[in-house]
Design brief:
Blueprint: H1 3-20, H2 31-54, H3 61-81, H4 96-104
Helix pairs in contact: 1-2, 2-3
Transmembrane segments: 32-51, 57-76, 88-109
GO cellular component, one term: membrane
InterPro entries: DUF805 (IPR008523)
């Protein structure tokens, strides 16, 4: 396999795992997994905004939940990776991008982490 195929497989795996674990707030996520999911979700959200401009359907808000749930669950798992409680995710409702950026650069806490021993991905 060439490097590009490996990258594509990794990206597809992150997207699949991110959506699959939308309701799982236990465990931990690695920094690379989290950053990849955040970037993909933001690109997906740009597509949503373009769709909203073209078509003004009242049920398009359901698509917003498709963006928010995987990010919220992954942010909680990312906070667990740093040794913090997932309740810090409530900062999303005040300063959402500050919480996203903070979780991207949050170092992992490998010793004495109460959530799990190592990140799942």
């Amino acid at each position: 396999m060439c490097i590009m195929e490996d990258v594509i497989i990794y990206l597809l795996n992150v997207i699949y795992q991110g959506y699959r674990q939308s309701f799982n707030i236990k465990g931990r996520d690695s920094r690379a997994f989290y950053i990849t999911l955040v970037v993909f979700q933001h690109l997906w959200f740009v597509f949503y905004l373009a769709l909203k401009v073209v078509m003004n359907y009242p049920l398009l808000w359901i698509l917003v939940m498709i963006f928010v749930l995987p990010l919220l669950a992954s942010n909680i798992r990312r906070l667990h990776d740093g040794g913090y409680s997932g309740t810090w995710c409530f900062s999303w409702f005040c300063l959402p991008h500050l919480a996203l950026i903070g979780a991207m650069f949050l170092p992992s806490l490998n010793n004495n982490n109460p959530y799990t021993r190592y990140p799942q991905n």
